[in-house]
Input
Amino acid sequence: MTVNSILSHKGDEVLTIEPTATLAAAVQTLTQRRIGALVVTGPSNRIVGIISERDIVQALDAKGAEVLAAQVAEVMTRKVVTCGRNDTIAEIMEQMTLHKFRHVPVIEHGCLVGIISIGDVVKARLDELVREQDALRDYIRTA
Ligand code: AMP
Output
């Protein structure tokens, strides 16, 4: 199973934020859209970072509530690990486990075309297991 099969179900919407936006604005979008991370994009939609709820919680702990007025660029992760449409779910799981993050933006021809979260990966894997189990049951029943 590939990244593309997940995107074909969930679609290609990726919520982005500018590096100059405030953390308060990031919190508002994360909460309203019930998501865990935003891709940070600069001019021409180029990825310049990623900010997740974990970054914001850590900044709040380190600097207190006034950090909500700071810019996203101050706390985002700049070196973003991305994947392609043809990468397998197993490869994405490996990346998430290795780097301990839960979001991977999908890039095609240099453009952002989707994002895979750990929830998407778990759902895809469970669906796959159910399909395998059904196929085995059918096989046993008809053998
Ligand atoms: P998360 O588990 O996605 O909430 O993120 C945990 C930490 O990893 C945060 O510091 C994020 O900024 C960072 N992070 C999340 N996704 C990625 C990614 N694809 N590449 C690099 N860092 C990431």
Remarks:
- The longest strand covers residues 111-117.
- The first helix runs from residue 3 to 10.
